[in-house]
Amino acid sequence: MIEISHLSKTFGHFKALEDLNLSVGEGEIYGLIGPNGSGKTTTISILLDILSPDPGAIITIAGRKIPEKISEVYQLIGFMPQDLSLYLDLTVEQNLKFFAKLYRIPKSNIAGRIQKILELVDMEEFRKRIVSKCSGGMQRRCSLAVALIHEPSILILDEPTVGVDPELRIEFWDFFKQISREKEVTILITTHYLAESTNCDRIGLMNKKIVVSGTPEELMKNVKSAKNLDEMPDMEDVFIYFTHQEKKMRDNGHEN
Ligand SMILES: Nc1ncnc2c1ncn2[C@@H]1O[C@H](COP(=O)(O)OP(=O)(O)OP(=O)(O)O)[C@@H](O)[C@H]1O
Ligand SMILES: [Mg+2]
């Protein structure tokens, strides 16, 4: 559903991405996990044609070449950016109405769609509240609602659970899993919370490129046997192990 090969991105002399390769299947939840500055948002920005890649990258979403066919793809994608992109002086409902019109949802469907989405993200009672007066968690819910308003088949979520309380985080993940299973929605998601990444079907640990990719179980098993552990490691151990391995390889590469 999302295919990226040979993706590099240079800002001036700084290489933010170096030959990143990534493939996300239909209906899959794929988690991009990496430290600050590892290139997660840059990757997403290139997928959405907000940034241009260095020459040589091949990117397709739902079989359409990016950036050439991006306008077709926008209709299929729901995007929740790392920084919220809501109109702060509009109410929750007005924001949803605005985006519904932007996505050309037929006028007769808009009210029903908004009602459904508000119920989904549990924001019905706050529909008339100005977004700037909403709490951080409510704004996150609202941002997710905006991303879902046109019933996209692909969701791209950049740190959707940052600043969200644990209860709502669990609700968000249950919801992501539900739409992935029931509606075959493909989800590319970034998160800082390593424990959360076990909710993904597959994860990619990234540092300018995908250092290692696999199901959470596969990665944990790999580390268990590589380190000869008696117990299964957690995702934090997995992350530290592969980050160190990658750093070692990088350092050796520079020495040679
Ligand atoms: N427009 C830009 N100009 C120059 N450098 C940039 C630009 N955008 C991103 N970078 C740099 O590229 C690197 C990758 O940034 P990016 O935002 O993709 O990281 P990230 O993995 O999303 O980090 P975080 O976890 O903090 O959100 C960083 O070093 C950042 O400073
Ligand atoms: Mg980011």
Explain the overall architecture:
- With 256 residues, the protein is α/β, with parallel strands linked by helices.
- It folds into two domains: 2-76 and 153-255, Rossmann fold, CATH 3.40.50.300; 83-151, no CATH class.
- Helix content is 39%, strand content 22%.
- It contains eight helices and ten strands.
- It has helices at residues 40-47, 70-74, 92-102, 107-120, 136-148, 166-183, 216-226, 235-255, and strands at residues 2-11, 14-24, 29-33, 58-61, 64-66, 77-80, 154-158, 186-190, 202-206, 210-214.
- The strands form two sheets. Strands 6-7-8-3-9-10 form a six-stranded mixed sheet, sandwiched between helices.
- Strand 1 and strand 2 form a beta hairpin.
- The longest helix is centred in the last third of the chain and has 21 residues, at 235-255.
- Magnesium ion binds next to helix 1.
List descriptors.
4-stranded antiparallel β-sheet; binds magnesium ion; alpha/beta; globular; 39% helix; Rossmann fold; 2 domains; binds adenosine-5'-triphosphate; 256 residues; 22% strand
Main beta sheet, described?
6 strands, mixed
Overall 3D geometry? globular
- Overall mean pLDDT score? 92
- Uncertain segments are none
CATH architecture classification name of the largest domain: 3-Layer(aba) Sandwich
Strand order of the largest sheet: 6-7-8-3-9-10
What CATH calls the topology of the largest domain is Rossmann fold
Q: N-to-C SSE series?
A: EEEHEEHEHHHEHEEEHH
Helix residue percentage: 25-40%
CATH class term of the largest domain = Alpha Beta
Give the C-alpha Rg. 19 Å
Number of strand elements: 10
Strand content: 15-25%
